[in-house]
Amino acid sequence: MGERQLPTVAYFSMEYGLHSDFKMYAGGLGILAGDFIKGAKDIGAPLVGIGIKWKQGYTDQRIGEDGRPYDTFTDHEYEFLEDTGITVTVTIKNTEVPCKVWKTEQFGNNPLYLLDTDLPGSGNGWITARLYGGGFGEERIAQEIVLGIGGVKALRALNIPVEVYHFNEGHAVLAATELIREKMQAGLTFESAWRNTRESVVFTTHTPVKEGNEAHGLDLLETMSAYNGLSRDQMERIGGNPFNMTVAGLRLARRSNAVAALHAETANRMWKDVAGRSEIIGITNAIHLPTWSDPRMLRAYDEGGDLWAVHMELKRELIDLIRERSGVELNPERLLIGFSRRAAPYKRSDLIFSRPDLISPYLESGRIQLVFSGKAHPNDETGKRIVSNLVAMMKRYPGSVVFLENYDMTIGAKLTRGADVWLNNPRRPLEASGTSGMKAAVNGVLNCSTLDGWWPEACLDGENGWQIGDGFESADPNELDRHDSAALYDTLFNRVVPTYYKDRPRWVQMMRRSIETTREAFSTKRMLEEYYQKLYMR
Predict the structure, then answer these.
(1) Using CA atoms, how far apart are residues 272 and 436, in angstroms rounded to an integer?
(2) pLDDT tens digits, one per residue of 458-508
(3) CB 22: neighbour CB atoms within 10 A?
(4) How far apart are CA 75 and CA 54, in angstroms?
(5) What is the pTM of this model?
Protein backbone atom coordinates (compact mmCIF):
# COMPACT_ATOMS: atom_id res chain seq x y z
CA MET A 1 0.00 0.00 0.00
CA GLY A 2 2.96 2.28 -0.48
CA GLU A 3 5.14 4.04 2.07
CA ARG A 4 2.52 6.46 3.41
CA GLN A 5 1.71 5.88 7.06
CA LEU A 6 -1.68 4.22 7.39
CA PRO A 7 -4.33 5.94 9.50
CA THR A 8 -5.62 4.15 12.60
CA VAL A 9 -9.17 2.95 12.02
CA ALA A 10 -11.94 2.07 14.50
CA TYR A 11 -14.33 -0.34 12.81
CA PHE A 12 -17.82 -0.40 14.34
CA SER A 13 -20.08 -3.38 13.68
CA MET A 14 -23.10 -4.81 15.49
CA GLU A 15 -21.88 -8.38 14.86
CA TYR A 16 -18.64 -10.29 14.26
CA GLY A 17 -18.37 -13.81 12.86
CA LEU A 18 -14.98 -15.04 14.07
CA HIS A 19 -15.72 -18.66 14.99
CA SER A 20 -18.75 -20.92 15.00
CA ASP A 21 -18.66 -21.25 18.80
CA PHE A 22 -18.29 -17.51 19.46
CA LYS A 23 -21.92 -16.43 19.12
CA MET A 24 -21.40 -12.81 18.15
CA TYR A 25 -22.88 -13.03 14.65
CA ALA A 26 -26.16 -13.57 12.82
CA GLY A 27 -25.17 -13.81 9.17
CA GLY A 28 -23.27 -12.27 6.30
CA LEU A 29 -22.74 -8.84 7.86
CA GLY A 30 -21.01 -10.42 10.85
CA ILE A 31 -19.01 -12.87 8.77
CA LEU A 32 -17.69 -9.96 6.71
CA ALA A 33 -16.77 -8.05 9.89
CA GLY A 34 -14.98 -11.07 11.32
CA ASP A 35 -13.05 -11.60 8.08
CA PHE A 36 -12.29 -7.86 8.01
CA ILE A 37 -10.48 -7.80 11.35
CA LYS A 38 -8.73 -11.11 10.61
CA GLY A 39 -7.53 -9.72 7.28
CA ALA A 40 -6.34 -6.54 9.01
CA LYS A 41 -4.21 -8.69 11.33
CA ASP A 42 -2.68 -10.52 8.35
CA ILE A 43 -1.46 -7.33 6.66
CA GLY A 44 -0.51 -5.47 9.86
CA ALA A 45 -3.14 -2.74 9.38
CA PRO A 46 -3.70 -0.37 12.34
CA LEU A 47 -7.38 -1.18 12.86
CA VAL A 48 -9.46 -2.17 15.91
CA GLY A 49 -12.97 -3.55 16.04
CA ILE A 50 -15.75 -2.19 18.23
CA GLY A 51 -18.80 -4.35 18.95
CA ILE A 52 -21.14 -5.73 21.59
CA LYS A 53 -20.70 -8.80 23.80
CA TRP A 54 -23.93 -10.71 23.22
CA LYS A 55 -24.86 -12.97 26.13
CA GLN A 56 -27.19 -15.16 24.07
CA GLY A 57 -26.04 -14.22 20.59
CA TYR A 58 -28.42 -14.77 17.72
CA THR A 59 -31.12 -17.42 17.68
CA ASP A 60 -30.42 -21.14 17.65
CA GLN A 61 -33.12 -22.11 15.17
CA ARG A 62 -34.35 -25.69 15.23
CA ILE A 63 -37.02 -27.50 13.23
CA GLY A 64 -40.01 -28.78 15.20
CA GLU A 65 -41.92 -32.00 14.58
CA ASP A 66 -44.45 -29.92 12.64
CA GLY A 67 -41.72 -28.92 10.16
CA ARG A 68 -41.66 -25.30 11.33
CA PRO A 69 -38.61 -23.48 12.73
CA TYR A 70 -38.59 -22.38 16.34
CA ASP A 71 -36.10 -20.19 18.19
CA THR A 72 -34.06 -20.98 21.29
CA PHE A 73 -31.68 -18.73 23.21
CA THR A 74 -28.85 -19.93 25.44
CA ASP A 75 -26.58 -17.97 27.77
CA HIS A 76 -22.91 -18.24 26.77
CA GLU A 77 -19.69 -17.77 28.73
CA TYR A 78 -16.33 -17.13 27.03
CA GLU A 79 -13.32 -17.68 29.24
CA PHE A 80 -10.88 -16.40 26.63
CA LEU A 81 -12.24 -12.84 26.77
CA GLU A 82 -9.78 -10.42 28.36
CA ASP A 83 -11.07 -7.99 30.98
CA THR A 84 -9.70 -4.56 30.03
CA GLY A 85 -10.59 -3.21 33.47
CA ILE A 86 -12.48 -0.39 31.77
CA THR A 87 -16.14 0.53 32.20
CA VAL A 88 -17.80 3.44 30.40
CA THR A 89 -21.24 4.92 30.90
CA VAL A 90 -23.98 5.81 28.41
CA THR A 91 -27.35 7.44 29.03
CA ILE A 92 -30.43 5.40 28.09
CA LYS A 93 -33.92 6.65 28.99
CA ASN A 94 -32.30 9.27 31.25
CA THR A 95 -30.54 6.54 33.22
CA GLU A 96 -26.79 6.06 33.43
CA VAL A 97 -25.94 2.59 32.12
CA PRO A 98 -22.44 1.17 32.77
CA CYS A 99 -20.82 -0.81 29.94
CA LYS A 100 -17.90 -3.11 30.65
CA VAL A 101 -15.27 -3.40 27.91
CA TRP A 102 -13.89 -6.82 26.97
CA LYS A 103 -11.17 -7.63 24.46
CA THR A 104 -10.23 -10.59 22.30
CA GLU A 105 -7.56 -11.46 19.76
CA GLN A 106 -8.32 -15.17 20.08
CA PHE A 107 -9.04 -15.96 16.43
CA GLY A 108 -6.09 -14.45 14.58
CA ASN A 109 -7.84 -11.09 14.50
CA ASN A 110 -6.87 -7.52 15.30
CA PRO A 111 -8.06 -6.36 18.74
CA LEU A 112 -11.84 -6.54 19.10
CA TYR A 113 -13.41 -4.60 21.96
CA LEU A 114 -16.88 -5.69 23.06
CA LEU A 115 -19.22 -3.64 25.27
CA ASP A 116 -21.34 -5.46 27.83
CA THR A 117 -24.22 -4.11 29.97
CA ASP A 118 -24.85 -7.40 31.81
CA LEU A 119 -23.14 -6.31 35.00
CA PRO A 120 -23.99 -7.47 38.53
CA GLY A 121 -26.76 -5.39 40.07
CA SER A 122 -27.20 -3.06 37.09
CA GLY A 123 -30.50 -4.44 35.78
CA ASN A 124 -29.44 -3.59 32.24
CA GLY A 125 -28.52 -7.04 30.98
CA TRP A 126 -31.50 -6.97 28.58
CA ILE A 127 -29.67 -4.50 26.33
CA THR A 128 -26.84 -6.81 25.30
CA ALA A 129 -28.71 -10.10 25.71
CA ARG A 130 -29.80 -10.92 22.14
CA LEU A 131 -28.46 -9.87 18.76
CA TYR A 132 -31.39 -8.53 16.67
CA GLY A 133 -33.79 -10.08 19.16
CA GLY A 134 -36.18 -7.20 19.71
CA GLY A 135 -37.00 -5.70 16.33
CA PHE A 136 -36.52 -1.97 15.66
CA GLY A 137 -37.93 -0.58 18.92
CA GLU A 138 -36.48 0.49 22.27
CA GLU A 139 -34.18 -2.51 22.60
CA ARG A 140 -32.51 -1.87 19.22
CA ILE A 141 -32.01 1.84 19.95
CA ALA A 142 -30.50 1.01 23.34
CA GLN A 143 -28.10 -1.39 21.66
CA GLU A 144 -27.14 1.24 19.09
CA ILE A 145 -26.45 3.76 21.85
CA VAL A 146 -24.12 1.22 23.49
CA LEU A 147 -22.36 0.39 20.21
CA GLY A 148 -22.00 3.92 18.89
CA ILE A 149 -21.81 6.32 21.82
CA GLY A 150 -20.38 3.69 24.18
CA GLY A 151 -17.89 2.63 21.50
CA VAL A 152 -16.44 6.13 21.18
CA LYS A 153 -16.22 6.46 24.95
CA ALA A 154 -14.46 3.09 25.15
CA LEU A 155 -11.87 4.22 22.60
CA ARG A 156 -11.19 7.31 24.68
CA ALA A 157 -10.86 5.29 27.88
CA LEU A 158 -8.52 2.83 26.14
CA ASN A 159 -6.37 5.75 24.91
CA ILE A 160 -6.56 4.53 21.30
CA PRO A 161 -5.87 7.48 18.98
CA VAL A 162 -8.36 7.05 16.11
CA GLU A 163 -8.09 8.90 12.81
CA VAL A 164 -10.94 7.18 10.95
CA TYR A 165 -14.26 5.93 12.32
CA HIS A 166 -15.75 3.29 10.02
CA PHE A 167 -19.46 2.56 10.50
CA ASN A 168 -20.24 -0.88 9.07
CA GLU A 169 -23.96 -0.40 8.32
CA GLY A 170 -26.27 2.10 10.02
CA HIS A 171 -26.26 0.52 13.48
CA ALA A 172 -23.23 2.58 14.53
CA VAL A 173 -24.25 6.08 13.38
CA LEU A 174 -25.04 7.35 16.88
CA ALA A 175 -21.26 7.29 17.42
CA ALA A 176 -21.20 10.48 15.36
CA THR A 177 -23.45 12.26 17.87
CA GLU A 178 -20.75 11.60 20.47
CA LEU A 179 -18.04 12.90 18.14
CA ILE A 180 -20.10 16.02 17.45
CA ARG A 181 -20.90 16.47 21.15
CA GLU A 182 -17.19 16.29 22.03
CA LYS A 183 -16.38 19.03 19.54
CA MET A 184 -19.26 21.27 20.62
CA GLN A 185 -18.11 20.87 24.23
CA ALA A 186 -14.71 22.09 23.08
CA GLY A 187 -16.34 25.28 21.73
CA LEU A 188 -17.32 24.51 18.13
CA THR A 189 -20.75 25.32 16.75
CA PHE A 190 -22.96 22.42 15.64
CA GLU A 191 -22.24 23.21 11.99
CA SER A 192 -18.48 23.24 12.53
CA ALA A 193 -18.60 20.12 14.70
CA TRP A 194 -20.60 18.27 12.04
CA ARG A 195 -18.20 19.31 9.26
CA ASN A 196 -15.22 18.37 11.41
CA THR A 197 -16.74 14.99 12.30
CA ARG A 198 -17.45 14.20 8.63
CA GLU A 199 -13.74 14.44 7.92
CA SER A 200 -13.06 11.43 10.16
CA VAL A 201 -16.10 9.20 9.37
CA VAL A 202 -16.64 6.67 6.56
CA PHE A 203 -19.73 4.55 6.10
CA THR A 204 -20.57 1.21 4.47
CA THR A 205 -24.12 0.56 3.31
CA HIS A 206 -25.01 -3.07 2.72
CA THR A 207 -28.59 -3.80 1.87
CA PRO A 208 -30.64 -2.37 -1.02
CA VAL A 209 -33.76 -3.95 0.52
CA LYS A 210 -35.97 -1.28 2.08
CA GLU A 211 -36.68 -3.29 5.25
CA GLY A 212 -32.97 -3.50 5.98
CA ASN A 213 -32.57 0.28 6.20
CA GLU A 214 -33.64 1.05 9.71
CA ALA A 215 -35.59 4.16 10.75
CA HIS A 216 -36.76 5.40 14.17
CA GLY A 217 -39.26 8.06 15.19
CA LEU A 218 -37.63 11.17 16.62
CA ASP A 219 -39.91 11.06 19.66
CA LEU A 220 -38.74 7.55 20.47
CA LEU A 221 -35.09 8.51 19.98
CA GLU A 222 -35.59 11.42 22.39
CA THR A 223 -37.27 9.14 24.95
CA MET A 224 -34.31 6.78 24.70
CA SER A 225 -31.82 9.68 25.25
CA ALA A 226 -30.32 9.03 21.81
CA TYR A 227 -30.00 12.73 20.97
CA ASN A 228 -26.94 12.74 23.24
CA GLY A 229 -27.01 16.51 23.77
CA LEU A 230 -28.10 17.46 20.26
CA SER A 231 -31.43 19.15 19.57
CA ARG A 232 -34.41 17.67 17.75
CA ASP A 233 -33.76 19.98 14.80
CA GLN A 234 -30.12 18.91 14.63
CA MET A 235 -31.05 15.23 14.71
CA GLU A 236 -33.63 15.76 11.98
CA ARG A 237 -31.07 17.54 9.80
CA ILE A 238 -28.75 14.55 10.16
CA GLY A 239 -31.22 11.68 9.66
CA GLY A 240 -34.59 13.08 8.66
CA ASN A 241 -37.96 12.44 10.26
CA PRO A 242 -38.28 9.56 10.92
CA PHE A 243 -34.56 9.29 11.58
CA ASN A 244 -33.17 6.94 8.92
CA MET A 245 -29.93 5.30 10.01
CA THR A 246 -28.65 4.89 6.44
CA VAL A 247 -29.47 8.50 5.52
CA ALA A 248 -27.66 9.61 8.68
CA GLY A 249 -24.64 7.50 7.78
CA LEU A 250 -24.50 8.98 4.28
CA ARG A 251 -24.69 12.54 5.65
CA LEU A 252 -22.23 11.99 8.50
CA ALA A 253 -19.47 10.43 6.38
CA ARG A 254 -16.95 12.14 4.14
CA ARG A 255 -17.21 9.13 1.84
CA SER A 256 -19.36 6.01 1.73
CA ASN A 257 -19.16 2.69 -0.03
CA ALA A 258 -21.35 -0.09 -1.31
CA VAL A 259 -20.10 -3.68 -1.29
CA ALA A 260 -20.01 -4.55 -5.02
CA ALA A 261 -19.86 -2.61 -8.27
CA LEU A 262 -23.52 -3.32 -9.11
CA HIS A 263 -24.52 -2.52 -5.55
CA ALA A 264 -22.84 0.90 -5.87
CA GLU A 265 -25.04 1.65 -8.91
CA THR A 266 -28.12 0.47 -7.01
CA ALA A 267 -27.26 2.41 -3.84
CA ASN A 268 -26.55 5.66 -5.69
CA ARG A 269 -29.88 5.32 -7.48
CA MET A 270 -31.69 4.41 -4.26
CA TRP A 271 -30.34 7.38 -2.26
CA LYS A 272 -29.99 9.95 -5.07
CA ASP A 273 -32.53 12.34 -3.47
CA VAL A 274 -30.76 12.55 -0.10
CA ALA A 275 -29.46 16.11 0.17
CA GLY A 276 -25.95 16.52 1.54
CA ARG A 277 -25.03 12.85 1.28
CA SER A 278 -21.54 11.59 0.65
CA GLU A 279 -20.46 9.92 -2.56
CA ILE A 280 -21.04 6.14 -2.64
CA ILE A 281 -18.23 4.20 -4.27
CA GLY A 282 -17.99 0.45 -4.81
CA ILE A 283 -15.56 -1.71 -2.83
CA THR A 284 -16.46 -5.33 -3.39
CA ASN A 285 -16.56 -7.60 -0.36
CA ALA A 286 -14.06 -10.41 0.06
CA ILE A 287 -13.26 -13.39 2.27
CA HIS A 288 -10.48 -14.36 4.66
CA LEU A 289 -8.77 -17.15 2.74
CA PRO A 290 -7.19 -18.95 5.73
CA THR A 291 -10.65 -19.22 7.32
CA TRP A 292 -12.65 -20.34 4.29
CA SER A 293 -10.33 -22.07 1.80
CA ASP A 294 -9.36 -25.68 2.39
CA PRO A 295 -5.56 -26.01 2.43
CA ARG A 296 -5.73 -29.40 0.69
CA MET A 297 -7.50 -27.87 -2.31
CA LEU A 298 -5.17 -24.89 -2.58
CA ARG A 299 -2.14 -27.13 -2.23
CA ALA A 300 -3.42 -29.36 -5.05
CA TYR A 301 -4.05 -26.26 -7.14
CA ASP A 302 -0.59 -24.78 -6.49
CA GLU A 303 1.18 -28.07 -7.16
CA GLY A 304 -0.84 -29.02 -10.24
CA GLY A 305 -2.30 -31.95 -8.37
CA ASP A 306 -5.53 -33.90 -8.71
CA LEU A 307 -8.28 -31.38 -7.89
CA TRP A 308 -11.02 -33.96 -8.37
CA ALA A 309 -9.54 -36.38 -5.84
CA VAL A 310 -9.32 -33.61 -3.23
CA HIS A 311 -12.81 -32.42 -4.08
CA MET A 312 -14.23 -35.92 -3.55
CA GLU A 313 -12.50 -36.06 -0.17
CA LEU A 314 -14.16 -32.78 0.82
CA LYS A 315 -17.48 -33.91 -0.63
CA ARG A 316 -17.45 -37.08 1.47
CA GLU A 317 -16.70 -35.00 4.57
CA LEU A 318 -19.77 -32.89 3.76
CA ILE A 319 -21.86 -36.01 3.21
CA ASP A 320 -20.69 -37.31 6.60
CA LEU A 321 -21.82 -34.06 8.25
CA ILE A 322 -25.18 -34.27 6.46
CA ARG A 323 -25.68 -37.83 7.69
CA GLU A 324 -24.77 -36.84 11.27
CA ARG A 325 -27.06 -33.81 11.27
CA SER A 326 -30.04 -35.14 9.29
CA GLY A 327 -29.78 -38.93 9.02
CA VAL A 328 -29.81 -38.66 5.21
CA GLU A 329 -27.12 -40.52 3.25
CA LEU A 330 -26.34 -38.75 -0.02
CA ASN A 331 -24.52 -40.33 -2.95
CA PRO A 332 -21.02 -38.91 -3.52
CA GLU A 333 -21.16 -39.86 -7.21
CA ARG A 334 -24.27 -37.77 -7.87
CA LEU A 335 -24.39 -34.01 -8.48
CA LEU A 336 -24.67 -32.15 -5.17
CA ILE A 337 -25.90 -28.54 -5.22
CA GLY A 338 -25.50 -26.35 -2.13
CA PHE A 339 -27.61 -23.35 -1.14
CA SER A 340 -27.18 -21.75 2.28
CA ARG A 341 -28.06 -18.20 3.24
CA ARG A 342 -30.54 -16.15 5.24
CA ALA A 343 -34.17 -17.05 4.52
CA ALA A 344 -35.34 -13.82 2.87
CA PRO A 345 -37.93 -13.62 0.05
CA TYR A 346 -35.61 -11.86 -2.43
CA LYS A 347 -33.02 -14.66 -2.12
CA ARG A 348 -35.64 -17.14 -3.43
CA SER A 349 -34.35 -20.26 -1.68
CA ASP A 350 -37.16 -22.33 -3.20
CA LEU A 351 -37.04 -21.01 -6.78
CA ILE A 352 -35.72 -24.35 -8.01
CA PHE A 353 -39.02 -25.95 -6.93
CA SER A 354 -41.18 -23.48 -8.88
CA ARG A 355 -41.84 -26.05 -11.66
CA PRO A 356 -42.25 -29.44 -9.98
CA ASP A 357 -43.00 -31.06 -13.34
CA LEU A 358 -39.48 -30.14 -14.48
CA ILE A 359 -37.37 -30.66 -11.37
CA SER A 360 -39.12 -33.70 -9.86
CA PRO A 361 -37.70 -36.31 -12.28
CA TYR A 362 -34.14 -35.23 -11.44
CA LEU A 363 -34.81 -35.38 -7.69
CA GLU A 364 -36.74 -38.63 -7.77
CA SER A 365 -33.96 -40.31 -9.74
CA GLY A 366 -31.25 -38.79 -7.54
CA ARG A 367 -29.41 -37.24 -10.48
CA ILE A 368 -29.62 -33.91 -8.61
CA GLN A 369 -29.14 -33.67 -4.84
CA LEU A 370 -29.95 -30.38 -3.06
CA VAL A 371 -28.64 -29.32 0.34
CA PHE A 372 -30.11 -26.21 1.95
CA SER A 373 -29.38 -24.36 5.15
CA GLY A 374 -30.30 -20.97 6.55
CA LYS A 375 -32.10 -19.13 9.33
CA ALA A 376 -35.02 -16.75 9.33
CA HIS A 377 -35.04 -13.75 11.66
CA PRO A 378 -36.96 -14.70 14.83
CA ASN A 379 -39.69 -12.15 13.99
CA ASP A 380 -39.85 -12.90 10.26
CA GLU A 381 -42.86 -15.12 9.61
CA THR A 382 -42.34 -14.93 5.84
CA GLY A 383 -38.78 -16.19 6.23
CA LYS A 384 -39.96 -18.98 8.50
CA ARG A 385 -42.51 -20.06 5.87
CA ILE A 386 -39.62 -20.31 3.37
CA VAL A 387 -37.72 -22.57 5.78
CA SER A 388 -40.86 -24.66 6.34
CA ASN A 389 -41.25 -25.07 2.58
CA LEU A 390 -37.67 -26.32 2.26
CA VAL A 391 -38.29 -28.81 5.07
CA ALA A 392 -41.44 -29.94 3.24
CA MET A 393 -39.37 -30.51 0.08
CA MET A 394 -37.00 -32.65 2.14
CA LYS A 395 -39.94 -34.86 3.11
CA ARG A 396 -41.27 -34.91 -0.45
CA TYR A 397 -37.91 -35.94 -1.94
CA PRO A 398 -36.25 -38.10 0.74
CA GLY A 399 -32.67 -38.89 -0.10
CA SER A 400 -32.33 -36.05 -2.62
CA VAL A 401 -33.24 -32.88 -0.69
CA VAL A 402 -31.78 -32.00 2.71
CA PHE A 403 -32.31 -29.02 5.00
CA LEU A 404 -29.66 -28.57 7.70
CA GLU A 405 -31.10 -26.74 10.68
CA ASN A 406 -29.38 -24.02 12.74
CA TYR A 407 -27.10 -22.69 10.01
CA ASP A 408 -23.71 -21.54 11.33
CA MET A 409 -20.09 -21.09 10.25
CA THR A 410 -19.40 -24.83 10.55
CA ILE A 411 -22.17 -25.74 8.09
CA GLY A 412 -21.21 -22.85 5.82
CA ALA A 413 -17.59 -23.96 5.63
CA LYS A 414 -18.45 -27.61 4.94
CA LEU A 415 -20.97 -26.73 2.24
CA THR A 416 -18.76 -24.24 0.42
CA ARG A 417 -15.94 -26.81 0.36
CA GLY A 418 -17.85 -29.99 -0.40
CA ALA A 419 -20.71 -29.13 -2.76
CA ASP A 420 -20.22 -29.57 -6.52
CA VAL A 421 -22.22 -26.44 -7.40
CA TRP A 422 -23.07 -23.32 -5.43
CA LEU A 423 -26.54 -22.06 -6.33
CA ASN A 424 -27.55 -18.42 -5.86
CA ASN A 425 -30.63 -16.92 -7.45
CA PRO A 426 -31.57 -13.59 -5.84
CA ARG A 427 -33.82 -11.07 -7.54
CA ARG A 428 -31.43 -8.67 -9.24
CA PRO A 429 -30.40 -6.08 -8.01
CA LEU A 430 -31.28 -6.91 -4.39
CA GLU A 431 -28.20 -8.95 -3.46
CA ALA A 432 -25.61 -6.50 -2.17
CA SER A 433 -22.63 -8.86 -2.47
CA GLY A 434 -22.98 -12.50 -1.40
CA THR A 435 -19.67 -13.73 -0.01
CA SER A 436 -20.71 -17.40 0.27
CA GLY A 437 -20.20 -17.71 -3.48
CA MET A 438 -16.63 -16.46 -3.08
CA LYS A 439 -15.96 -19.13 -0.45
CA ALA A 440 -17.24 -21.79 -2.82
CA ALA A 441 -15.25 -20.45 -5.77
CA VAL A 442 -11.86 -20.52 -4.02
CA ASN A 443 -12.51 -24.17 -3.14
CA GLY A 444 -13.22 -25.10 -6.74
CA VAL A 445 -16.99 -25.32 -6.16
CA LEU A 446 -18.61 -23.94 -9.31
CA ASN A 447 -21.01 -21.02 -8.95
CA CYS A 448 -24.33 -21.05 -10.76
CA SER A 449 -25.93 -17.68 -10.11
CA THR A 450 -28.04 -14.85 -11.40
CA LEU A 451 -25.97 -11.80 -12.31
CA ASP A 452 -26.33 -10.06 -8.98
CA GLY A 453 -24.04 -9.03 -6.12
CA TRP A 454 -20.39 -9.96 -6.69
CA TRP A 455 -20.99 -12.48 -9.50
CA PRO A 456 -21.14 -9.99 -12.44
CA GLU A 457 -17.53 -9.05 -11.56
CA ALA A 458 -16.31 -12.65 -11.40
CA CYS A 459 -18.40 -14.66 -13.84
CA LEU A 460 -16.79 -16.02 -16.98
CA ASP A 461 -19.82 -17.94 -18.16
CA GLY A 462 -19.03 -21.55 -18.92
CA GLU A 463 -15.41 -21.00 -17.92
CA ASN A 464 -15.34 -20.59 -14.12
CA GLY A 465 -19.03 -21.17 -13.41
CA TRP A 466 -22.37 -20.31 -14.99
CA GLN A 467 -24.65 -17.31 -15.12
CA ILE A 468 -28.39 -17.77 -14.77
CA GLY A 469 -30.22 -15.54 -17.25
CA ASP A 470 -29.07 -12.28 -18.72
CA GLY A 471 -29.24 -9.74 -15.90
CA PHE A 472 -32.95 -9.12 -16.43
CA GLU A 473 -34.65 -6.73 -13.99
CA SER A 474 -38.32 -6.03 -13.45
CA ALA A 475 -40.39 -4.08 -10.95
CA ASP A 476 -42.87 -6.97 -11.09
CA PRO A 477 -41.44 -9.76 -8.90
CA ASN A 478 -43.73 -12.35 -10.51
CA GLU A 479 -42.45 -11.50 -13.98
CA LEU A 480 -38.86 -11.62 -12.72
CA ASP A 481 -39.45 -14.97 -11.01
CA ARG A 482 -40.91 -16.50 -14.17
CA HIS A 483 -38.00 -15.24 -16.26
CA ASP A 484 -35.33 -16.41 -13.82
CA SER A 485 -37.00 -19.74 -13.14
CA ALA A 486 -36.93 -20.59 -16.86
CA ALA A 487 -33.30 -19.46 -17.07
CA LEU A 488 -32.36 -21.53 -14.01
CA TYR A 489 -33.82 -24.72 -15.46
CA ASP A 490 -32.23 -24.08 -18.84
CA THR A 491 -28.78 -23.56 -17.32
CA LEU A 492 -29.09 -26.46 -14.92
CA PHE A 493 -30.50 -29.08 -17.30
CA ASN A 494 -28.67 -28.12 -20.49
CA ARG A 495 -25.29 -27.02 -19.19
CA VAL A 496 -24.54 -28.00 -15.58
CA VAL A 497 -25.92 -31.55 -15.47
CA PRO A 498 -24.46 -32.67 -18.83
CA THR A 499 -21.02 -31.29 -17.95
CA TYR A 500 -20.99 -33.03 -14.57
CA TYR A 501 -22.00 -36.44 -15.88
CA LYS A 502 -20.46 -36.44 -19.36
CA ASP A 503 -17.39 -34.18 -19.37
CA ARG A 504 -15.39 -34.56 -16.19
CA PRO A 505 -12.17 -33.09 -17.70
CA ARG A 506 -14.02 -29.87 -18.52
CA TRP A 507 -15.56 -29.77 -15.05
CA VAL A 508 -12.11 -30.04 -13.45
CA GLN A 509 -10.77 -27.40 -15.83
CA MET A 510 -13.58 -25.08 -14.67
CA MET A 511 -12.72 -25.81 -11.04
CA ARG A 512 -9.13 -24.79 -11.69
CA ARG A 513 -10.28 -21.63 -13.47
CA SER A 514 -12.63 -20.81 -10.59
CA ILE A 515 -9.77 -20.86 -8.08
CA GLU A 516 -7.47 -18.96 -10.43
CA THR A 517 -9.92 -16.10 -11.05
CA THR A 518 -11.18 -15.60 -7.49
CA ARG A 519 -8.42 -16.49 -5.04
CA GLU A 520 -6.66 -13.11 -5.03
CA ALA A 521 -9.39 -10.92 -6.50
CA PHE A 522 -11.81 -11.72 -3.67
CA SER A 523 -9.40 -11.98 -0.74
CA THR A 524 -9.44 -9.67 2.30
CA LYS A 525 -5.95 -8.48 1.32
CA ARG A 526 -7.30 -6.90 -1.87
CA MET A 527 -10.40 -5.59 -0.08
CA LEU A 528 -8.49 -3.94 2.76
CA GLU A 529 -5.99 -2.37 0.40
CA GLU A 530 -8.95 -0.81 -1.44
CA TYR A 531 -10.49 0.41 1.82
CA TYR A 532 -7.25 2.14 2.78
CA GLN A 533 -6.64 3.60 -0.68
CA LYS A 534 -10.20 4.65 -1.55
CA LEU A 535 -11.91 5.27 1.78
CA TYR A 536 -9.53 5.72 4.71
CA MET A 537 -6.61 7.72 3.30
CA ARG A 538 -7.25 11.22 1.98
Answers:
(1) 29
(2) 999 999 999 999 999 999 999 999 999 999 999 999 999 999 999 999 999
(3) 21
(4) 9
(5) 0.96
Give the pLDDT of residue 538. Answer: 85
DSSP 130: B
Rounded to whole angstroms, the Cα distance separating 435 from 287 reads 7
pLDDT at 208: 87
Three-state DSSP state, 242 = coil
SS3 readout for 438-462: HHHHHCCCEEEEECCCCHHHHCCEC
Q: Which helix (H) or strand (E) holds 510?
A: helix 504-518
356 upstream amide cis, omega within 30 of 0: no
Work out whether strand 60-63 and strand 47-52 pair parallel, antiparallel, or are unpaired: unpaired
Cα–Cα distances (Å) from 473 to 266, 425, 459, 460, in that order, read 12, 13, 18, 20
Query: Going along 381-445, which residue ranges are E strands?
Result: 401-404, 421-424
Residue 1: its pLDDT value, please?
57
The rounded radius of gyration (Å) of the Cα atoms in the chain is 23
Q: Give yes or no for a contact between 149 and 177, defined as CB atoms under 8 angstroms apart.
A: yes
CB atoms within 10 A of CB 65: 5
Q: How far apart are CA 252 and CA 247, in angstroms?
A: 9
Distance between CA 362 and CA 397 in Å, rounded? Answer: 10
- Count other Cβ atoms within 10 Å, centred on residue 80: 10
Q: Where are the beta strands (DSSP E) in 384-459?
A: 401-404, 421-424, 446-450
Q: Which of 61, 131, 17, 73 is nearest to 404 (CA)?
A: 61
Between CA 287 and CA 80 the distance in angstroms is 25
What are 94-115's pLDDT values in tens digits? 999 999 999 999 999 999 999 9
* Per-position DSSP letters for 9-27, written without gaps between them: EEEE-S---S-TTS----S
Q: What is the DSSP letter of 287?
A: B
Q: How far apart are CA 380 and CA 27, in angstroms?
A: 15
Entry field: residues in the chain: 538
Q: Report the mean per-residue pLDDT for the chain.
A: 96
> pLDDT band at 136, cuts 50/70/90?
confident
Q: Which helix (H) or strand (E) holds 95?
A: strand 95-104
Longest dimension (CA), the chain: 75
Q: H/E element holding 365?
A: helix 356-365
> How far, in Å, CA of 47 to CA of 537, rounded?
13
d(CA 147, CA 168): 11
135: left (phi over 0), alpha (psi -120 to 50) or beta: left
Q: What are phi and psi of 104, to 5 degrees?
A: -145, 140
Nearest CA to 165 among 81, 94, 249?
249
